[in-house]
Amino acid sequence: MSAPLRLVPTLRAEPAHPLIALTDGAPVLAGDADTDLVDFVNTGTRVLEPTTDPDTVTPATMQLAWFVHHVGDTHRTGGDRSDNLASHIGRWVLPFLIELAHTKPQAERGVADLWVAEAEALTRILAGAQPMPAATVAGDLLGRRALACVWLGILDAGNVCHGGAQAVTDAIAHRRLVTHRDHAGHVLVHTADLRGAGLLIEKDTPHGVCRDHAGNVLFPFKQAMTRAANLGAHLRGNFEALRPITPLDGDLARPGRDDPGYIPLDAIHALGSHLTPVHQVVLWLLRLMGLRIGEAYGLLVSDLAYDADAEAWTLAIAKQGGRRATVRNTVTGKLERRDSKPDTKTPQSHRTVRVPDHLARTLCDLVAIFHTDEDGTVDTRARLIPGLRKDDATGADAFRHALDRAIARAGVPRFRPHDLRGSLITDLKNAGVKKRIRTYYAGHAKKGSVHDGYDDGVPVSLQLRATRVLDQLLAELNLDQLVVATEHQQSWGRDTRTGRRADSVRRRLRERGWEATPEGFAPDDVVIDTAEAARMLGVSVVEMRRRFASGEVRAARVMRGKRPVWLTTVRDLQDAADNDAATTLKDLAETTGLTYHQARTLCIQTGVLDPTADRGTRVRLTGDQVAQVLDEIARRDALSKHVMDLPAASRALNLPLGQVEKLYRSKRLERAPDPVGRRRRFVTRASVEAYAASVTIAPAQPGDRYVPLGIAAECLQVTRHELSEAMSSGSLRATTISRRQHVSLTDALSLAEQQHLGETTTTRLVAYAVPHEN
């Protein structure tokens, strides 16, 4: 039998927030929501009281207090900087400090007990020379924040350990692992103890970060120790002396990237056929305007305006978008999650930039396609780059992934979106454009002198030289239309503005030559790939390919790069669904008398429905599939008439379930397969009826009392096996009470009288007898 869990009592009263308990070293079962440092700042929770002795505060709690003071109390950071600091502290610093304190006695975990030499281990961890904190390793394995994995429940611990939960419980039973209880009574283990027991699944790839990144991680820790000194703590050394280590090449998680150098305009044009039209527009904004990717996704339709004096189109660049951003509310001071950021990277990056004529025509077409209603009304409040699954939100990550795929397919040297700024500046510099103009155009106007501080920007009229250079370069390549026809079609969420008018958008795309029709399809066809078709029908991708290949759904196989893919149209898919003798799951359930969920489970068991199909999608079954399901139902019904499970046999024979199980094991009852295909035990009805006919089993009397089987065997001076045989033959009535076998008191007294066992036996049997109702 396993040894009982060893529990270590908690020494501290429950604090106001789980994060404070966590940094104090108390066991806490925390989730990602509990360990969000930015949300913690917004709660306004005080970490340290003014009279708290800083020497007794743990370094982890002091780090948390510094973050609250720096980000929350003094508003020293903006939203993005707050996220960066929270990421560094939550992934590296706090897990390291909490695990370091866990190795020390309770009385030696304060700031005054932390030596610089101990803290230097963090620099070696960041350089990849030592393992990451155990909580960070567990967080990566579980897909959670590192702070949420400092303490783990038994099941979660099993998911990050060799041997799973069984290995964890074995280690607890053999006292190689100590368990703790939090305030809610959860049994927890410290993740660092899993490493100490040799159970933790360690990271087998390098994890070192570059020197600059390591310096950014060490910054908040050193600042926290400086604040501790300012509060009166007696530090053990100069923590400002901590310096990041340059990692070895083999220890870097991300090896250094080669500079792609200059990316010519024709390379950008070559990527067009591998990108959707929207992503092509984004790519040209980065290459011809020098925009950062966040600036491109932050543009609104109203930011594109025509300057009549300069006779040119302009873009007002003053915000960022394309991803979820953290922004400080200037009224409340709290940090809020938003879909856009009302600022650029630096205030000096606010600018109004002239748009090259080629790109201006493209942007006007983009507005006409996506943001103009049939009556000519333009939605000026919408984001210039239309959203995909959600209006005016995100999109930057999808663009990056699409660009990486396009680069691989086109054979263009690999580059990042930000590298295109350097290529733009190179074009302007080669053409002799003055530094003041090109730095303003790209949003790099730094204040280098007193006079630069009074520079209010370059007027649009003076930017003509820059745009003329770019238009000339495009003309030399005969690139009159920047967006090239592509077979890559964009899909939008059903509830987005673009999704609700997708047919009109697609028609306009093809009218302007932005979207090409794959070979074999009509110009007005809405073409979809295999995955989208499978999702619409609620079948697996494999089943969808089978239907394409068999001709059940009309489709064409075309080449996408070097890979053949199946394509069909929404019309063909709908026609196939309507014309086919198909049945929905709802119809199947109504005709068979099953519930919808029972019908769905039956279809999965018979293999006619993909188990990964989304619930709630409209599933259509062919005639053959319906027939297969009905045959299975008929088979089960027919088989159910000839078999019964053991509880049913127990009721039919009026025997305890344990006695029927013995008859099943001894094969005195004929075994039968489960009609549903599960692992339940069944016997044939014929064998039950034959056994009932071979023995006389008297029914149990409602008013009779019953004696436990073991007590009866002892009093009657027989073996349990002999009693069991008597029960099976029906000569001794029996029943089950509280999952234990009992024999009839009347029958037991009769046997005692037959064997002349005396009054003592009779008295004892009566004393242990209980009524059947209990």
Structural commentary:
- By secondary structure, this protein is of the alpha+beta class.
- Helices cover 45% and strands 11% of the residues.
- It contains 33 helices and 21 strands.
- The strands form 7 sheets. A 4-stranded mixed β-sheet has the order 1-3-4-2. Strands 19-20-18-21 form a 4-stranded antiparallel β-sheet.
- Helix 3 (59-73) packs antiparallel against helix 4 (79-102) and helix 30 (709-716) packs antiparallel against helix 33.
- The longest helix has 24 residues, at 79-102.
- The two termini are 31 Å apart.
The general outline is: flat
Low-confidence stretches at least 5 residues in length (pLDDT < 50)? 1-13
Radius of gyration: 37 Å
Helical amount? 40-55%
Q: Let me know the number of strands.
A: 21
Q: In percent terms, what proportion of residues is strand?
A: 5-15%
The main pleated sheet reads as: 4 strands, mixed
Q: What is the residue-averaged pLDDT?
A: 85
- Main structural class: alpha+beta
- The number of distinct helices, counting runs of at least 4 residues, comes to 33
State the strand order across the main sheet.
1-3-4-2
Distance between the termini: 31 Å
Q: Any key phrases for this structure?
A:
alpha+beta, 4-stranded antiparallel beta sheet, 4-stranded mixed beta sheet, disordered N terminus, single chain, flat, 774 residues
